[in-house]
UniProtKB/TrEMBL annotation:
Biased composition (Polar residues): 1-10
Signal sequence interval, chain numbering: none
Listed name of the protein: TLDc domain-containing protein
Domain TLDc, residue spans: 288-484
Region (Disordered): 1-24
Pfam families noted in UniProt: TLD (PF07534)
Superkingdom per UniProt: Eukaryota
Length: 540
C-alpha cells in the first residue's frame, strides 16, 4: 500500500524530497506504519475522515480547577482540532490522501523548522478550530506558508483557550501511557501565564491591576506579533505540545478509539488533582515551569501535571515548612544528601502583616537548581533559573555574566570568633550581603532585591510592582521538590542512614573505660580538690 508500493517503483523527486524531510525529523518509520494502518486497501489512500478521527481531541466534560468553568465554545474547539489540522496541512485528492501528500502534510506541520514557524502553525490551527466552534478569533495570515507573518490580535480569553488547547494536546499524547480509567481531562489554573502574556503584549500592560484582573471579562488587545515574541521568550517549548500530540496520535492510530477516549469514571485521578491544590506546586504552575526547560528536567516536572498516583508525587516533596517545621535546620535535615536537581517555591507577601489588603496580595517565586545544596560560606553551583510564578509568570535564565547561583550557609558546628561573619541563610543571585533573593535562618522573612544587584540571572521583577529598593517580606510557605528521580532519593536515604549510624556510635559510652575507680576522672578530680599541691606523675 502507498508506502510499500513506492519502494517497488521508481520514486518521484517530490516523493524523495518529502521522505527525506520526514527522515530528517526521525518520523519516516512511524509514518509508514501509520499510513499502512489508516489507508484504505482498495484505494491505497488515507480517507480524510480517518485522519481527522486519528487527530481528534474530543472530550465530554472538561474539568477546570479555575474559579470559572471554560467557555462553552471550548469543547467545540477541541472537537474541531483534528479537522483543522487536516484542512490546514494535508491536501487530499479525490480518493483520499496519497502516500506523498500524507508525508508532505506531516512535514508541513511537524517537520524540522524554526520555532517561530511552529508557533505560527499552532496559531493557524487554533484560529480555524475556534472559528468552527463559533468563537471568533481575530487573526490574519498573509499566506499559507509556515513562515508568513501573523496579523490581528488576541484577547485574554483567546490566550487562555489557546494554552488550554496546548495542555489538552500534551495530556492527550500521554493518555495511552495511563491505566485505563485514569484519563479524565483536567484543565489547570494557568492565569499566571495569561497575565504574563497580557503584561508583555498589551500597550498598557504594566499599568494593569493584576491582583483583580478578570481574564474572561477583559477586552485588552494583544497584537499577534508581540504574542509570538512572548511565546518564544517565555514558553519556548510550548510548540512541542502540538508537535508531540501529532506524532503520538499518528504513532498510535492503530489503537482502538475506545482505548484513547477519556473515561468519565476516573475519580482517582480527580482526587489526585484536588489533593495537589494544597501544594504551592500546582499542575498549572508545574506546567508553566516545564515550558522553560529543554532537557530531561522537563519530563520530571511534567510528572506533577499528569499523574494517577498521588502518593508517588508526595515522595518527591523533600521539604514543606508547614509540614516539617520552619527554620534552616529543619530545612537542611530534609534536603541534605539529595544530589539531584531541586525546585524550590516560596510564597509570601510584603507590607504590614496586620493589614488584610497586603495579605491578600500573595505571590509565589521559584528557584530551579541543577544540583543539591551544600553548606558553604560563598556562592557556588551550576546554572539555575529564577521564576516569578504567581500572580504573573516570568522566567529569568542565567545571563552568563556571573556564576553566583547558590548561597547556603549554616552556623559552623565549632563556634569560633569571626571578625566579619557571613550571613546565615539561603541566597540566590547577587553578591554576599546583597543577594537578589535571601531567606533568613528562621524562614520567617525573605528579602527581594532589584535585578540591578544580580548579574547572574536575566533582569525582571519577581512580583508585581517591585521597586528599586529592597523588599523585606513575610514568608507563608516554603516547598522543595526533588527532580532527580528514584536514584537521587535512594542516594539521600543512604546518606541519612550512614549519618544516623555515626550519631548512634557517638552516643554510646564504653563502660569498660570507667570500670576502675583508680582510673576514673571522678577520683582524679577529688584528689586534686583534697590536695592540690601534691606531686603527681605526669603521663607522657
Amino acid at each position: 500500500m502507498g508506502a510499500s508500493s513506492s519502494s517497488e517503483q521508481k520514486a518521484s523527486p517530490e516523493q524523495r524530497e518529502a521522505e527525506s524531510a520526514a527522515a530528517a525529523a526521525g518520523a519516516l518509520p512511524m509514518l509508514r506504519k501509520a499510513f499502512a494502518d489508516l489507508a484504505d486497501p482498495r484505494t491505497s489512500a488515507v480517507p480524510v475522515a480517518s485522519l481527522q478521527r486519528c487527530l481528534s481531541l474530543r472530550c465530554d466534560k472538561p474539568i477546570s480547577s479555575a474559579t470559572r468553568v471554560p467557555p462553552d465554545s471550548f469543547s467545540g474547539l477541541l472537537e474541531n482540532v483534528g479537522a483543522s489540522i487536516v484542512d490546514v496541512f494535508f491536501v487530499a485528492e479525490k480518493g483520499g490522501l496519497s502516500w506523498v501528500e500524507f508525508v508532505k502534510g506531516y512535514v508541513k506541520c511537524c517537520g524540522r523548522m524554526a520555532v517561530s514557524m511552529v508557533v505560527s502553525n499552532l496559531l493557524r490551527v487554533f484560529a480555524l478550530a475556534a472559528n468552527k466552534a463559533g468563537h471568533q478569533v481575530d487573526l490574519q495570515f498573509e499566506s499559507d506558508e509556515a513562515d508568513c507573518k501573523v496579523g490581528g490580535h488576541l484577547v485574554p480569553t483567546d490566550v487562555l483557550m489557546l494554552l488550554w488547547m496546548c495542555w489538552t494536546m500534551l495530556w492527550s499524547s500521554k493518555v495511552h501511557k495511563l491505566p485505563r480509567g485514569k484519563a479524565a481531562l483536567f484543565l489547570p489554573d494557568i492565569s499566571c501565564l495569561v497575565l504574563s502574556a497580557v503584561v508583555s503584549c498589551a500597550d498598557n500592560g504594566s499599568s494593569l491591576n493584576l491582583w483583580n484582573f478578570d481574564i474572561f471579562g477583559s477586552e485588552v488587545q494583544l497584537p499577534a506579533g508581540k504574542f509570538v515574541a512572548w511565546a518564544l521568550a517565555t514558553v519556548p517549548t510550548l510548540p512541542e505540545c502540538y508537535s508531540q500530540f501529532i506524532h503520538e496520535h499518528l504513532g498510535n492510530c492503530s489503537i482502538s478509539q475506545d482505548e484513547l477516549e477519556p473515561s468519565n469514571s476516573s475519580s482517582g485521578d480527580i482526587t489526585s488533582v484536588e489533593t495537589s491544590g494544597a501544594h504551592l506546586l500546582t499542575p498549572g504552575r508545574a506546567w508553566a515551569i516545564s515550558l522553560t526547560a529543554r532537557n530531561a528536567l522537563r519530563e520530571e516536572i511534567l510528572t506533577h501535571c499528569f499523574f494517577s498516583n498521588c502518593d508517588k508525587i508526595e515522595e518527591n516533596l523533600l521539604y514543606r515548612s508547614s509540614l516539617h517545621g520552619k527554620g534552616l535546620n529543619r530545612f537542611w535535615s530534609n534536603t541534605e544528601g539529595y544530589l539531584g536537581p531541586l525546585l524550590m517555591l516560596v510564597s509570601g507577601y510584603s507590607g504590614d502583616s496586620h493589614e488584610a489588603n497586603t495579605r491578600d496580595k500573595k505571590w509565589v517565586i521559584g528557584v530551579l537548581l541543577q544540583q543539591g545544596l551544600e553548606s558553604r560560606d560563598h556562592f557556588y553551583g551550576s546554572p539555575g533559573n529564577l521564576y516569578a510564578v504567581d500572580p504573573i509568570f516570568h522566567a529569568y535564565l542565567p545571563s552568563g555574566k556571573e556564576k553566583n547561583f547558590i548561597y547556603s550557609h549554616l552556623h559552623p558546628s565549632a563556634r569560633v570568633y569571626e571578625p566579619h561573619p557571613k550571613p546565615v541563610g539561603l541566597g540566590f543571585g547577587g553578591t554576599i550581603g546583597n543577594e537578589r533573593i535571601f531567606i533568613d535562618e528562621d524562614f520567617a522573612r525573605i528579602t527581594l532585591r532589584h535585578h540591578a544587584v544580580d548579574k547572574t540571572h536575566q533582569p525582571g521583577p519577581l512580583f508585581p510592582n517591585q521597586g528599586y529598593l529592597a523588599t523585606d517580606a513575610f514568608i507563608l510557605e516554603v516547598e522543595v521538590w526533588g527532580l532527580g528521580g528514584t536514584k537521587a532519593k535512594e542516594a539521600q536515604a543512604s546518606v541519612k542512614k550512614r549519618e544516623q549510624l555515626f550519631t548512634e556510635q557517638r552516643r554510646k559510652v564504653d563502660l569498660k573505660t570507667f570500670a576502675s575507680w583508680e582510673d576514673s576522672p571522678e577520683k582524679m578530680m577529688m584528689d586534686m580538690m583534697n590536695d592540690p599541691n601534691s606531686v603527681r606523675r605526669e603521663d607522657r
